[in-house]
Amino acid sequence: MLAVLTGCQQRAPLPERRGVVSIDFCADQMVLGLLPRERVRAVSFEAESDASFAAPRARGLPRLRPQIEDIAALRPAIVVRSFRGDARLDRQLRSMGIRVVQLGYAGTLGDVAGDMRRVAAELDAETKATALLAGYDAELAAARGTAAPAQSALYVTPGDVTTGPGSFVADVIAAAGLKPYREQPGWGTLPLEEMVRRPPDVVFRAFYDSARYRQDRWSSSLHPVVAQASRRAKEVEVPGSWLACGNWLAGHAVARLSEARKEG
Q1: CA proximity to 233, closest of 152, 143, 164
Q2: In the sheet that 63-64 helps form, which strands lie side by side, from edge to edge?
Q3: Which long-range contacts (CB under 8 A, 24 or more apart) does 91-99 make?
Q4: Which residue of 44, 113, 120, 171 pairs with 125 in a disulfide if CB–CB is 3.0 to 4.6 A?
């Protein structure tokens, strides 16, 4: 009665925070890989990205941009992020009582399991992580060669870059029993002249399924020299999502490459 007389109304209690949201496509991969759908409140606006494997699993889930207003409105208990967001967003979220789970950076295949187990423990999803990592370990074990790598694999992307020792992709190539075609560490442009003199044994393509990364016909990766130099090479193409985020999906790429090596 007093509230009516004074024109005041009691504010309804806010709903309890619950569930998990992810705010970039690598976080989407991890969340949708580890958690049952009913625990996922929303995924990132990149969930439909072709660099994510998440599109079918994300169907029907709300989309979210990595900004405090959108996240706060959903009242999640946990935000999972990789490369979107920043320290300021983390502080804002934590001040509101929302836990932030940051994915680590996997620089090698050996980094994958440790980071997945840590994230799974924070999300109470250890059982699912164990199952995914068992499959990952099995793919790596089956791919392992018994002899020193003899065949070379040239990594090719729509962006005309390739990579040598010291990169995650080079680790994938080595795990498949091959050696990176590029002998220098790090990343560089496609070595067209060298490819003529020393053709690769395997051409390993990724991200050609992605409209985001698709190049026009002037791309060096579509150059006739590349086609000529690689005409005797085995062609292996994998979805970009298998290599985009450094998680268990990379095991699929190792397995696909290894199959090509074993074909001789």
Answers
A1: 152
A2: 63-64, 40-44, 20-22, 78-81, 99-102
A3: 92/68, 93/68, 96/72, 97/17, 98/17, 98/71
A4: 120
139 close to 251: Cβ distance less than 8 angstroms: yes
Query: What is the reported pTM?
Result: 0.86
CA 62 to chain centre: 20
